Amino acid sequence: ARQLVDSALSCKTVPECFVLSTSCTALTVCGRYEEALELVPRLERLAADGVGGSSVYDSLVLLALRRGLPAQAESLARRFLARKPEKDASGEVLHELLVEALVAQHRCKDAAAVLLGLLEDREFKLVPSHLLPAVRLVQECKAENIAGELTHIRDLLRIRGIKTGEVRAR
After folding, report:
1. Which of 6, 30, 83, 121 has CA 20 to 30 A from 160's CA?
2. Which residues, 6+ apart, have CB-to-CB distance to 165 below 8 Å?
3. Does the structure show a pLDDT above 80 at 154?
4. Residue 33 and residue 133: Cα distance in Å, rounded?
5. How crowded is the C-beta side of 84, counted as CA atoms within 13 Å?
6. What is the DSSP letter of 14?
7. Which residues of 60-77 are buried (b: 16+ CB within 10 A; e: fewer)?
8. pLDDT at residue 168, as a whole number
9. Whole-angstrom Cα distance, residue 53 to residue 91?
10. Quick check: 58 and 94 in contact, CB under 8 A?
């Protein structure tokens, strides 16, 4: 882990954002939060400069989520979404992370609203492997009655041709 941090911090090449974001994500996934936090100032600088796009944003939001800071993750995700990320799988991951942050805060209706907005935006080229985990999180959310939202999500998934298995109202 130390070698990964050192090599990421010493990166001065054009794909610096890629090296930093993938290193941060790898450390986060492995539970090495302290080491990942060392990369945050550089990642935040890249994000502030508008460099790196979704991969930089995703790594910062994921780190906040995995550290148990869903409100911080939500704040970051909303800030980055306001910058209009790509309408493809990379932009979709940011929505998925926002849904996870909202569910972690027991805000099921807000999480469902994020999914509905994503599904209603026909420009998004949705990838089921990113979307379906977020749908399942909302489906399993028990903090609020969201049967109507789940029915609408299911209908939009069908219209978009995305097979989910069973997404049903609770």
Report:
1. 83
2. none
3. yes
4. 23
5. 2
6. T
7. bbbbbbbbeebebbbebb
8. 47
9. 9
10. yes
DSSP 8-state code for residue 122: T
* Cβ–Cβ under 8 Å, residues 100 and 134: yes
Distances (CA, A) of 170 to 55, 78, 133, 147, 151: 34, 28, 17, 6, 10
Answer yes or no: are the C-beta atoms of 62 and 74 closer than 8 Å.
Answer: no
The encoded tokens of residue 128 equal 């089921």
Q: What is the DSSP string of 34-85?
A: HHHHHHHHHHHHHHHTT-STHHHHHHHHHHHHHTT-HHHHHHHHHHHHTT--
CB 70 within 8 A of CB 32: no
Query: Would you say how long the chain is, in residues?
Result: 170
Nearest-10 Cα torsion for 135, 107, 58, 69: -140
Higher pLDDT, 26 or 54: 26
pLDDT at 170: 40
Amino acid code (one letter) for 52: G
